[in-house]
Amino acid sequence: MAVEHNMQSSTIVDVLEKVLDKGVVIAGDITVGIADIELITIKIRLIVASVDKAKEIGLDWWESDPYLSSKAIDHNTKAIEQENKELRERLQALENKLETK
Which InterPro entries match (predicted)? Predict the structure, then answer.
């Protein structure tokens, strides 16, 4: 009589594929203190997921980071130019008010 064992073996590729498909969140806090006085708190959040999964859950910060995306530079430049224009207009309006007083 032979005994059969059903053993599943996962390669690192299989595990990585599952992790990237589903995503993994690792979270933790590190607190440094002396005599019950909290000096520093470091919050660590790590998400490991595929780009598609990250976008699916609303994480796409790299698209607006100018160090990681050339599109972000154009977007940020336009936003800064618009903000500068609005600030100049506000400054002009304030100067006009001061001149009329």
Answer: Gas-vesicle_GvpA-like, GvpA, GvpA-like_CS
